[in-house]
Design brief:
With 152 residues, this protein is mainly beta. The protein has 1 helix and 11 strands; from the N terminus they run αβββββββββββ. Strands 1-11-4-8-7 form a 5-stranded antiparallel sheet, with no helix packed on it. A 4-stranded antiparallel sheet has the order 3-9-5-6, with no helix packed on it. A two-stranded antiparallel sheet has the order 2-10. β5 (64-72) and β6 (78-87) form a beta hairpin.
């Protein structure tokens, strides 16, 4: 039975190319703290799905989170910089989205779907919080996950 579980778990992760997060010290995300994630892309013919990974405490005071995402490609060329809004809970009821365990909630939010990278090499993703409150409380970690997109 344990062998079947191990096989099932490893089969689920075969499409993951990169997955990392950075813990936010004391759950206080300062605007000048911009975690950086370096993703190596070798296959430019492959389509990828790219996700934000976010963990917040139930006490997080807002239903949303504004963050600025930067993407630099190989040779340090700026690919994109964008202010985005992530919805973490229902605006009306306050019911948290994501997977919860106790008072912590994990979110996996798609932001690039079936994306092809133009060149092989290292792509640098930078995330910074862009809320009015600084530091932003009850954000526990942020990260990126890159997965191979399913063939159509």
């Amino acid at each position: 039975m344990a062998l079947l579980l191990l096989i099932a778990l490893t089969a689920c992760n075969q499409n993951v190319v990169y997955k990392a997060h950075e813990d936010i010290k004391d759950g206080q995300w300062y605007a000048n703290n911009s975690p950086v994630f370096n993703v190596t892309i070798a296959d430019t013919s492959q389509k990828y799905n790219v996700y934000y990974l976010l963990r917040n405490a139930l006490q997080y005071p807002y239903y949303n989170l504004y963050l600025t995402r930067g993407i630099k490609g190989p040779e340090d060329t700026l690919q994109a910089e964008e202010l985005v809004e992530l919805i973490l809970s229902d605006e009306t009821t306050g019911k948290p989205f994501g997977d919860g365990l106790g008072d912590m909630f994990d979110h996996k939010i798609l932001f690039l779907e079936a994306h092809t990278f133009p060149k092989p090499g290292v792509y640098t993703f930078t995330l910074s919080q862009s809320m009015r409150q600084n530091p932003l409380p009850f954000i526990l970690s942020v990260g990126i996950c890159v997965e191979k997109a399913a063939e159509e």
